[in-house]
Amino acid sequence: MPFSALPLISRVASRVTRRRLLQRPERTEVICAAERRISPSSLCLPDDMDRVIACTAESGFDLERERLAGGMKEHGATLLRTFRDVTILDGSLYGAGTYHAVRPTRRRIIKVKDFARLESGLLCSNYVIDRYFGHWLTDGLPLEALARERGLPGITLEKARWSHEQGYRTLVGLSDAPVFAAKLSRLSIADDRGLNSNWRARIHKLKEAVRGSDPTGQASSRVFLLRGNAANKRSLINEEEVSNALQAQGFIVLSPEREDASHIAGILRNASLVVSVEGSTQAHMVMAAAPGSTLLTIMPPRNFNSVFKPICDALGIAWAFTVADDRGTEQFFQPVDRLLRLIDAIDRK
Predict the structure, then answer these.
(1) Which of 54, 199, 240, 261 is the most exposed place for a label (fewest CB within 10 A)?
(2) 0.85 surpassed by pTM
(3) What angle do CA 69, 316, 272 make, to 5 degrees?
(4) What is the pLDDT of residue 54?
(5) For residue 286, which of 264, 257, 255, 263 has the smallest C-alpha distance?
(6) What is the pLDDT confidence band of residue 186, given thresholds at 50, 70 and 90?
């Protein structure tokens, strides 16, 4: 089996020329212009932000406060940039002595059997899509929907599949053929970070497909989503106490880890209120629940992250949060009385 020194050669050349692959597209197309839209404020108890110790590494207090506040928000344009003669290898892009690491790797010499030859494609992977299940659902699938609309092959990078990936692909009708090594005459890369009307239209179509699935379980107006063991090791240490208290309030307790995508959608499609610990588990609710519903997130005090708040705003889902008590770097404890007080406030709103 041959080896490729392309990663080593391109990294050396890039240091000499100081060129970057994504700096010089052959063509840039505006799919949707930037927009402004009013967002509602988040729902919480008056002292919740005072309980936050630290934000997740990808954000910070200024960004989090901006997300949580209501008012007029800017949503960036969706841009499609096209590059000529790009090689994909092991999660990185290479071209003319330059490279871009979509998925960071330290490998410099790579064993490769053969390179697929493709005329064109739209890259549907990035660092967060490949790293977090929630971003795959809310960022990756809309990119694949964009590729389908544009008549381009959706290019995903070879990696281990998420446990619910095939189930959601079946629901929305999007298959994939992951790429490890390929040469493309033209590769399109979308800047799709703005939650503009084009993104909203695509994700609403995906949601319609998910919500239109035949429910396989009892639907409920209130659901508590268990975080599970596959997620990052941040532990709600009194999850059983919280679960029992919510069941007493009429909630269904759902463990996504134990169910398939169709069953999860069947439970969540009629939910008016969903409680979930912070993390990718929230994405199940975002993809299945209807506009007008509410997502209430239990936040670890050392990893505050409201990334789903602007997504919920864009989809007409209210977003609430409560901050748990600190029990060390990876553990936290949710006071049941505080959670029930917030649920009561949401009910009265």
Answers:
(1) 240
(2) yes
(3) 105
(4) 94
(5) 264
(6) very high
pLDDT for 147-177, tens place per residue?
999 999 999 999 989 999 999 999 999 999 8
- pLDDT digits over 204-245, tens only? 999 999 998 555 556 678 999 998 765 556 789 999 999 999
d(CA 248, CA 28): 55
Tokens describing residue 28? 């840039």
SS3 258: helix
What residues are paired with 182 via a beta bridge?
A: 88, 116
Q: How far apart are the first and last CA of the chain?
A: 64
Residue in the structure block whose two tokens are 């700096």:
23
Per-residue burial over 37-59, b if 16 or more Cβ lie within 10 Å, else e, is eebeebbbbeebbebbeebbeeb
Where do the domains of the chain lie, and which CATH numbers do they carry? Answer: 3-30+78-210 (no CATH), 39-75+215-348 (3.40.50)
Pair type for strands 222-225 and 273-277: parallel
Tokens found for residue 332: 């936290």
Tell me the residue type at 120.
S
Q: Are 78 and 199 in contact (CB under 8 A)?
A: yes
Per DSSP, the residues of 209-246 read HHHTS---S---SEEEE---SSS-S-EETTHHHHHHHH
The CA radius of gyration of the chain, in Å to the nearest whole number, is 22
DSSP letter for 248, please: H
Residues contacting residue 124 through CB under 8 Å, at least 6 positions apart: 140, 143, 144, 147, 154, 155, 156, 176
Select from 85, 260, 109 the least CA-distant residue to 187: 85
* 57-95 residue pLDDT tens: 888 999 999 999 999 999 999 999 999 999 998 888 988
Exposed, middle or buried: residue 295 (CB in 10 Å: 0-12, 13-18, 19+)? buried
How far apart, in whole angstroms, are the C-alpha atoms of residue 52 and residue 68? 13
